Amino acid sequence: MKLTKFSAVGLAAALAATTALAGPDDNSLVVAWGSTGPIENVDNYFNTNRTGIWFSRMVWDQLIYRDPATFEMKPLLATSWEQTSPTTWRFQLREGVTFHNGEPFDADDVVFTMNWISDPANGVKVQRNVNWIDRAEKVDQYTVDIHMKAPFPQAFEFLSGPLTIYPNEYYAEVGPEGMHENPVGTGPLMVESVATAEEYVLVKNPNYTWGSPKGESATDKIIVREIADVQTQIAELLAGGIDITADITADHVDQIGGVPGFTALQAGTMRTGYIGFDAAGRGDFEPTTKLEVRKAMAHAINREALVANLIRGDARVIHTPCFPTQFGCDEDAAVKWDFDPEKAKALLAEAGYPDGFDIEFYTFRPADWAEAIMADLADVGINATLTKMPYFALRDKQRNEGTTPMFLMDWGSYSMNDMSAITSHFFKKGPDDFALDDEVAGWLEEGDTSIDPAVREAAYAKAIEKITGELYWLPMFNHVRNYGMNASLDFIPYADEIPRFWQYGWNES
Q: N or C: which end of the chain has fewer CB within 10 A?
């Protein structure tokens, strides 16, 4: 793929459009994101966009903090915990913490949050994150019991990740829409304004001085600009309109890295890309319901070339429907598919499609990735027509219509290092399941609920073998996050794909 070099006209336009000069002079940080679409609702429980997760970590806290470098669990809003029964955890809560609106934090907030999000009637977007919770009970002002429906060994992955704590009085009054318009948490940054799909302004929380392992904000203000076009983001970066973007491509990394005063890098992440097939026939498309066709498509796609030429960086081909560091993600259990176009043609003929067939191909990722895959398919006679949609629109189409016979998508597991956070989400007969395999769902349920690690691993291995053997998914590669930034920014990338923007300050020049 060839990229247009940045023109003087483009840079001049970016300078003219700049509304807030980026840089360290006023101890502010200007961030750009938005290539996967805007955050539909910054309420953490009504968002599935990765940038919404980034936003949530700035504004809200969890009971537990998982150190992004060591994966160690540390006290955050809870100071200690103990398991009082196979299905109950008791948490001692931190005293002296206040929400951004002045509400004091205590057990009432934890109980309200856990009971509200676990009630299916309230419609939390990712039910997998919350449906293991039975109820929460207040023991005293700073002690809470969280009861699980069954033993749930990965509970702390959720309690340190997507389960943020809300102020009970405020949220009961304003609900998800009010939380979107005026977010209130206990985190290192307070929200000054929200302009959906345009800009979010956050300021340092002056009360975040109680020793949180997350640390206080290194800057006084963070301005997030939603900029959908990556070329515009880069022009803004080079013109001084933003300080950092995490949306650029591998080719942009090469370009930015050669400009004095700027730096760019490609950091590997645990985000797992995959091609999914409508094997269950949810959309009444016959070819993808045939295993021989799915095998043919797997043999037709050159994943190694895609990684080497387009993804690059720390990316590598993945053979599992999970990220290899996640608990239970046994690479040896996966059935591996090599690149073999001639075998693909033979399988198509065996399936009754000697001349190939037409198929609709969906993604929200860069078109050049999909086009490379489509070219491989065309070589064996499969004519794919690309439909590129914003992530949340494609997600809703899949859930509501089921009419996506083939799709290139990915999942970051909410940055949880347990394969239940990805494989169980997609293969336990929920709205994102295009396999609907009872046997797989049963193995995953066993792995999700057993407290015996060996039992979990064995069950998950069976699920991996069948998912990859039946090619419900063709796992593709782990993603890299490509960053471009002002060279004076003190920046650390993390494999869990969550930039800690509040930690990034300016180096003294």
A: C
